[in-house]
Amino acid sequence: MLGSLLFKVAIFFYVFASAGFIVFTIKQEKRLFNIGFFLLILGFLVHTGFLIYGYCLLGTAPVLDLRSSLSFFSWCIVLVYILFFFKFKLRILGAFVTPFSTFLILISSMFPICFGPVKPIFKTVWLTVHVGTIFIGNALFAIAFLAAVMYLLQDYYIKNKKFSFLYERLPSLTTIDTINHYSLIYGFPFLTAGIITGAIYAQIAFGKYWQWDPKEVWSLVTWILYAILIHERLAVGWKGRKAAIMSILCFVVLSISFIGTSLFIEGYHNIKQIERLGAIG
Amino acid sequence: MRILNIGMNHKTAPVELREKLTSDDMLDYLIKTESIKEALCLCTCNRIEAVVVTENEDDARKAIISYFCRLGGLSQDRILNFIYIFKDLDAVRHIFRVASSLDSMVIGEPQILGQIKDAYAEAVSRKTTGVILNSLMHKAFHTAKKVRTETGICESAVSVSYAAIELAKKIFDTLSGKKVLLIGAGEMSELTARHLISQGVKEVVVANRTFEKAVELSSKFGSHPISFDEIPIYLIEADIVITSTASRHYIIKREMLKGISRKRRNRPLFFIDIAVPRDVEPDVNKLDNIYLYDIDDLKSVAEMNMNQRRQEAIKAERIVEEEVLKFKRWLETLDIVPVIISLKNKTHSIIEKEIKRSESKLKDLSPEQKEAVFVLCRSIAEKLINDPIIFLKSKVGRSSLNTYLDFTRKLFNLEEQEKGELYEDSRHKFNNK
To answer: Is the Cα dihedral B339, B341, B346, B350 positive or negative?
Structure first.
């Protein structure tokens, strides 16, 4: 069927794009990067097609189970990376981001596909806006996280005078820090908007803005942590190592609130609960 | 015609001798020598090279060596210990290697190509080059460019001050607008500071124990001097600190920098300590966002990069070898040029003669028609000699070439022009191109 075909084709392109970026990083031939980037764009377009197809089929954003959430998340990361590439022209970032989103989409493909009628409470534009903004925010934070990893690596190499293979290929500390900075600055409004639209959606669907559901709590914690990080960065002038460590920690908390609460913690964001609610039958 | 290259470089001759041989009128001397047809000379601080094209190799060699002897004030026997003599393809290879910076003191240094280009421009402006040297030099530039783009021989810094700059770029990305604090007014720190300024650094502040020296050095950079006591204040502003004092104790201690990060808003700070004994306490490197490199660190970076260049040089030698082979093939085609030219000259003179003979019969024709007849004759003749020429060209590089050339001469009854005259001819043609 068309949906799964598009999905598989997108995965196929992502895998080869990742391979292209990794080989580019080793060989440093611009041509390889161009091939990788071209494949990534192709994969992205096919993936977009898959999502539109899912949207039409369900009548709402295809994010109701973990499989499609992860796939949508992976799409958001690719989208953000492509936009970042046009802004910063940083090729090496692709070698970190593309494998990461490919990894996510591969994981997503291991979850079972669920089909069935979708309950009317999920068929609202608020759900799409809520999930869309949250995921774009998360994708930006994912890039901030990857940039932080790059920063710590490069910082380690320079400090310890280890001029390894990655030292030469990673950009300067300032550049990586700038990427981290912008990902956080752009990501935060999206996260905020995501939480607010989520509350509005909860009011429409359940009649309550806030119910202290575990995911809500974790999201709040994440929001506060990112707020602190951004405050420290802008007001106090956090930079470099500290900011990098903090954005890695923040992302760990974000991952818990994103995946953990969907799988292991009871609450209405839990995928099983969503199934019980009759979203997908 | 033979290519002859006589010269000396930093490996074969001491600087005392090399500097005596740096003379402006070498080119004049060379080209005035009877047996030398083309000449070019290259004098840099590390080498003196005379490259000539000659009909009589012995004469040319003697002339060059006696010139070297005269300038160097040495006897012929002695001078032979300091020079190298390359002939034909060995000379070609040597020139290609020099241009590609494979023969330089610092492998891969970029200046030499510019120096060779200048030397060539000088020779061209004095009209001392001809077909062979023109082609040789263009191929040398081509080879050098190829080596530079296809190998990593020019990549990465191999001097201490460039290594420091490369590191600074890995930290700050760009150096424009950055502030440098120079502690100690040594020669080395001045050199590094100059490199930094050429990279767009905004300000260089100088601190020195003897204040006068600080004033003197800072006036060179158009900046201002500070006293030793002001260092802690400037550590907050600076991005790069270069230390090179003769002090026996650490000038920058870890305690001095402890609270500084917050005041600096965590901007990275890069210490370049080129003093021995060291000026910066090594533990400083353990502080967040502060990076410390001492002279040994920088030397090992430079050495590592040098090794990398040596590796790349192997690739470069292969490229040079390929280009030498290509040049060899081109040189061989030169052997058939005289035959081809006389073949063409003969056909043209036949056409002219025959048209003149038929002039009375052609007199009624209009100028256009006359022209058409001439063109017709010429194209028939050229078509006829075309196949023999292609055949000869295909034999270039084969041992049988000379037999075929002789045969062609006999077959067409060619009287070859004087070789020298012909040579002038083709030189003229080349220059017109």
So the answer is: positive
